[in-house]
Amino acid sequence: MTEYRLNRRDFVKGAGLLGAASTLPLSVVKLAFAAPKESFTFAYISDAHIQHIKGKEFVRNWDRGLIRAVAETNLLTPKPDFVVFGGDLAQLGTKEELDHGAEMLSRLSYKTHCVMGEHDYYLDLGEYWSKLFGAHYYSWDHKGVHFVVLNSVLTYDDWTHKRWPTAAQRMLEMAGLDNPNGSPFMVGEKQREWLRQDLAKVDKQTPVVVFSHSPIQKIYKGWNFWTEDAEQVQALLKPFPKANVIYGHVHQIQYNQIDNIAFNSVMATAWPWPYPQSYAHADQHLPVLTVPMNRADPFFERDATGWQFIDVATGRVAMEYNLYNNTNRVVAFNPATGRPEDRVYQAAANRIPPQIHY
Amino acid sequence: MQRTATQWILVATVLLGMSALAQGAETVPATTPLGLPAVQFPPDNPQTPAKIALGKTLFNDKRFSTTGEVSCANCHDATKAFTDSPLRVSEGINKQTGTRNAPTVVNAAYFESQFWDGRSPSLEDQALHPFVNPVEMGLKDHEPILKIVRSDPDYAAAFKQVFGKSGDAITMKEVTQAIAAFERTQVAGNSPFDRFYFRGEADALTPAQKRGFDLFVNQGRCVSCHVVEQTQALFTDNRFHNVGVGINAIQKDVPALATDVLKTRATMEQVDVKVLSDKRSSELGRLMVSRRFDDIGAFKTPTLRNIAVTAPYMHDGSLTTLHDVMHHYNNGGVTKEGDPVNDFLSGGIRPLQLTDQQVDDLVAFMEALTSPEYADLAKPAAGGKP
After folding, report:
1. The CATH number of the domain covering residues in B2-183
2. pTM, 2 dp
3. Do A324 and B347 make contact, defined as CB atoms within 8 angstroms?
4. Of residues B319, B315, B317, the one with CA closest to residue B329
5. Rounded to a whole number, what is the distance in Å from the CA of B312 to chain A's nearest CA?
């Protein structure tokens, strides 16, 4: 770990080049899925929520989560082809937080693609983030798969530009959960048009993998486990039999199938949602998609967080969750049922019941 | 609560006595020290006095090494609470040193796995490895041991009596069963803490030790790993944690070393040789055994019983005093304040904000964990206390 292949400057350069990624010929696509040796993996780290206290002080817990994810990802054998960081690198979008987070991400010994989270965005509308990581939305092709990064955390212009006296307040309002002053996430018309044009160039049999921060499906509005124009984005993915969406933001394992689109969430490195049920004073109305983790062990401050490595050899997502101090889980697309399934926990009877601590 | 504890121990002792009876007249009536549970004996290796005596002889026999100078007892010396204190790491044949501090045999009977990295599942299995480790007793294989125990008249008679076996029928299974049987007799509780906590003797601890116990379970969070329960206190969780010892010195080498481990599938015999001869690989801890990211730089939680008489500390013997250990934990997993924390540090290890007074109190508490059998070692003349 002495030689960091990426530094912050490389990040900026790399992100700038993404738009120029060339499209692979169709024959390579077929070959990729005919020959297993052509398959590849990539790693996914998300929701680090690096939080500045003052001066050079940051919340140690969140730092440790990201540091560990980066260090472990660097040990993967075989090596992943690239890494995606799924958004919410910062907690309140400040320069200090983004710089500190970028410094930690720069230790990854792989090419890294970044996704915008609302905690990165709502202070300066992604301006400083762009300087570090490049475009807010972009696409590229890799070994026969078309990858798309969307900024799915936009909202109504009126809310963004006219409602708040300060940028800092806007950031805090969007960071709140169940906040009546909040506003639903969306991809927005401009970006949907870009996506339509981007996908128009892609053969319909090509596997498409979309990375977004929020789920491109509607799960729970109060926490923005939600994208307001999800249906319209889904419609653009409709022509692709192998369409996949991978999202962060929810800090837990979720998976779902809507028509042709398979959905997988990723874990946070910072903290898990939901907090253990015993801490909840009211019904949480959480998505029924959620399969609870066995209760996070408070001693292991990293329990119920983690990162993942993914293979898309079948054109569908097989995601292995690397869970700190816990049993790894695999959620993979099951061709027989036509949807993603947890390899172990699909039946309620097989789940580990929540522990009761006195 | 103390009554419940006593009742529990009584029941355990009675049950143990009954099962001992069922195994025949030769079996040993076990006594369970205050603060400890009854020792669990493997069904295929019940205790008998003759077997324990045979195990003790084997444990002390220096002929089971290439030089004829090293027995189990060299590193697990009964007069040093079954350690080689004050050596940092153990010495084998020809003064060769390994990489790890000899853990005490005392109360090893309660561990769910043996060795600092848990690479051995039982005392029986554990006893196999030092004989053939190049830096310990150095034998090429176990044949020289079998030759001796099959031909030496005293051993031949003892194995015949204990196992009903002679000649080639005697194997390392019987040898290690006898050694393990002896080791299972080395249990020690009855410390001042045990009398205070399990018997309610309020004056068994000094005021500083009582404050230390409060810190142990509260602000210090020591109890999270060094477990104390309602009826017993093993002072271990039998788990593995990266507490920032050893690994801190090889942080830059972790990717190369760990990749090597993950790419090659070594047998436990190969791991045994590697971890004692290659200091850098040794510091990967349980990763060498489990090949799990969670276990990078992680070592087994040792018991704290008799800790005041088994210096130096940690898997590599790198910390000389209990105060040094406390400062390491107080710094959040680094020995020198301000040094970089390793990337894989266990989540439970965080700065504790303990004052010097509180550190003193915690050390005082640990000094209350010495069993009467080893109390003499704690006296200043024996070098036990700073």
Report:
1. 1.10.760.10
2. 0.85
3. yes
4. B319
5. 27
